[in-house]
Amino acid sequence: CPDTEGALPVLGRDVTVPLVTGGEVSYAALDYAASAPALQRVWDDVAAYAPYYGSVHRGAGYLSQLSTDLFENARRTVAGFLGCRDGDQVVFTRSTTDSLNLLAATLPAGCRVFVFETEHHASLLPWRDADVTFLDAPRTPAQAVETLERALAAREPYGPALVCVTGASNVTGELWPVRELAAAAHAHGARIVLDAAQLAPHHPVSVAGLDVDWVAFSGHKLYAPFGAGVLAGRADWLREAEPYLAGGGASRKVTRRADGGVDVEWHDSAARHEAGSPNVIGAYAIASACKALTEAGFDALVAREEYLIGKVRAGLAEVPQVRILSLFGADAPRVGVLSFVVEGWNSSHFAAALSAEYGIGVRDGLFCAHPLVRTLLGSDPQAQGECGAPEAAPGEKSLNAIRVSFGAGTPNEHVERFVKAVR
Ligand code: PMP
Q1: How far does residue 308's CA lie from ligand 1's centre (Å)?
Q2: ipTM of the shown complex
Q3: Ligand 1 within 6 A of CB of 123
Q4: CA gyration radius for the chain?
Q5: Residue 121 Cα to ligand 1 middle (Å)
Q6: CATH superfamily of the domain spanning 16-30+297-422
Q7: pTM of the predicted model, to two decimals?
Q8: 245-268 pLDDT, tens digit each
């Protein structure tokens, strides 16, 4: 697997950055979990479409008709990519955060929500105004299923419930037992939404195959950084809820009442939650990324990523001061996302050194998953820094870690440089 062989072409490969030691080096983008570079194919598709851009669902002109077709075809492409069932809806949103907030706005009356404390804030916080139970961090995938089953079985009253779970952690990269959690949820009369922000760029995700009720993901983590995201799944809650945003596009008919007020009939389709002029380029870019990943084949993408994960694991194992953060064990299956601390180092300083001395971009901090990182690091003195993470209150020592993440566009050299730099 030499150098870039097998890596998909992405933008930014030619970008060079200055080093404090003098000279320049090509930038090693190893922060895919925050935002992945655009696939060249996505960029080319967007550039080819740009001159034909027009308003969607509004205009009679040729370009408006063309754009409307492309937008609706993008919806179909995403539905195919996600293995949606007949009758499922694909709503274009701004991001995973937006998708989960939208779903939170559709919760039926009396619906209880169950969510592990290990979630990213995007899948933890939208439910905080609901009747929510936060579940303790499990230490094995089987424990996750048992914990959920116990909590669902004990709920009183035994009414409607929703489980929200991530497919792959943005901190540890570990894969969660989604299929088993979905089966547990359904066995207990609950529904489940999958936060696939970190899973979808690395593994195939099938709504029908995993038997989840909804999936949420972000275009910018799927090599399509144009400001769009997706919520896909069951139509009933979406159709019955008030529109997430009120405005044009979501409304089928608006009339003035005799008493001077206004009556509205909302659309039943995905448009109900897409008020305003939609992000056509974003949706088109996501569809292009879905096609590119499907054509490249997830078998090949996963095999290559496994190779890179193996290189990182083996390289870090040679450095005794490094401790990899993990809930399910350092060897647990994961995507190309891995967080660690280094004995004797403040993580922020370490990440800054990787950037300044090696041209490597990683992330440091608590990764918008404060409860999880606190659980993983809480008792670990290696993780304490004198400064760094902005989450620390004044006078408090900060907790932070370093995260390296990569994907389909990562050349081998970036990972090799990272391992050498840590050594
Ligand atoms: N869920 C997970 C697991 C994530 O990693 C992220 C982004 N780091 C999000 C949700 C939120 O994604 P976005 O910022 O695109 O809304």
Answers
A1: 23
A2: 0.99
A3: yes
A4: 22
A5: 8
A6: Aspartate Aminotransferase, domain 1 (3.90.1150.10)
A7: 0.95
A8: 999 999 999 999 999 999 999 999
